[in-house]
Amino acid sequence: MDRINQNILQELGRNGRISNLDLAEKVGLSPSACLRRVQDLERRGVIKGYRVVLDKTALGIGFVAYSTVGLNSHTKASQEAFERAMSVAPEVVECHNITGTVEYLLRIEVADLIEYKRFHTDVVGTLPQVNSITSYVVMGSPKDMRA
Question: Helices (H), strands (E): how many in the chain?
């Protein structure tokens, strides 16, 4: 990964819809050389896709929380069951299997506290493999580089 490819990735990270002509100018390449590099990054899987950044407030998402979840059984079956449940829960936008005293870290996005309580109680709280849930409410995000 040379400096030019790093610059291409940085520019695409800022604006995935930038034209190849503008991207080439910003990274100091000819348009054809720039396009070849971008296509190579895509082919090698460095660039997995392009995403749109949404205004969550405009979509009615006003409440974000991170929750850690501990399981009462450390079997593969227990983990798979929990992961299946999270994969179909629209409130869960990220689910990470982590190390430490708990097994999972979730990012939950919902309209408000009432919706979060419903999700906490009626979805995660009803799963038989869940032993503990600890929630951390996001009050602000001074830096968020996710798409």
Answer: 5, 4
> ∠131-137-142 over CA atoms, to 5°?
135
Distance CA 120, CA 128 (A): 14
Q: What residues make up the domain containing 35?
A: 3-43
74 and 39 in a common domain: no
Return the amino acid letter for 24: A
How many domains does the chain contain in total?
A: 2
Cβ atoms of 135 and 113 closer than 8 Å: no
Phi and psi based region of residue 65 (left: phi greater than 0; alpha: psi -120 to 50; beta: remaining): beta
Asked if residue 58 belongs to a domain, the reply is no
Same domain (yes/no): 67, 37:
no
Considering the entire predicted model, what is its pTM?
A: 0.80
Query: Per residue in 53-87, pLDDT tens?
Result: 888 999 999 999 999 999 999 999 999 999 999 99
